[in-house]
Amino acid sequence: MDGYQIHFILSRDPNTSPFFRGVFAPDTIPMLKEKSAIVVNVDKSTEPGSHWLAFYQEADNLEFFDSYGNPPEFYGPKFQEFTLNYSSVHWNSTTLQSLTSNVCGAYCIYFILKRCQGHSLYSIVLQKFIKIQHSQQMAETTEIQETSITENQEPETVPEDVITAKILKSAPVRYLITVKSIMDYLKDHHIPYCHGLQKEKLCTEVNAYLELIS
């Protein structure tokens, strides 16, 4: 999924369009001062692009979503410098996507769609894993703690192979957040996948995603 397709979907959905600011490279990330959501590639603007990440900002709080479960600084100084502009930074710490798949763009769309609907980062990721990593930045001191989610119901037990997969940074396909649910959401809300000459290309990618998770 390329930047045009991601931008097309998120800029037209009534839930995301008021807050979606665009698709960026790490050397072009803008300061977010109002409630905002952006998608960022790990490659510079002069490079072809390889992996999509998402940011959601509200007040002085920033949320970072990576389907590989890495923190922002994993992707270099540009990402780390960006997070230092906010007093509180949260991110998911569990791998959702296999290294052999190419569904990172769909994950970013899913995260931003749900977040703009009012779902918290906790409630979104709790569907498939049990940990959130939380970073509270104060002045020059950065305090990081890993917190288990506790709600009225205990989260589902994660099978041993998923824990192993997390360590290997390659989650089994059956434990992916269902890309089909993303596509069903778009269909149910009458959001076109794309338009014009790109339709055939995107439909091919969607079919590949659905085959991957079936």
From TrEMBL:
Protein name: Ubiquitin-like protease family profile domain-containing protein
Annotated organism of origin: Araneus ventricosus
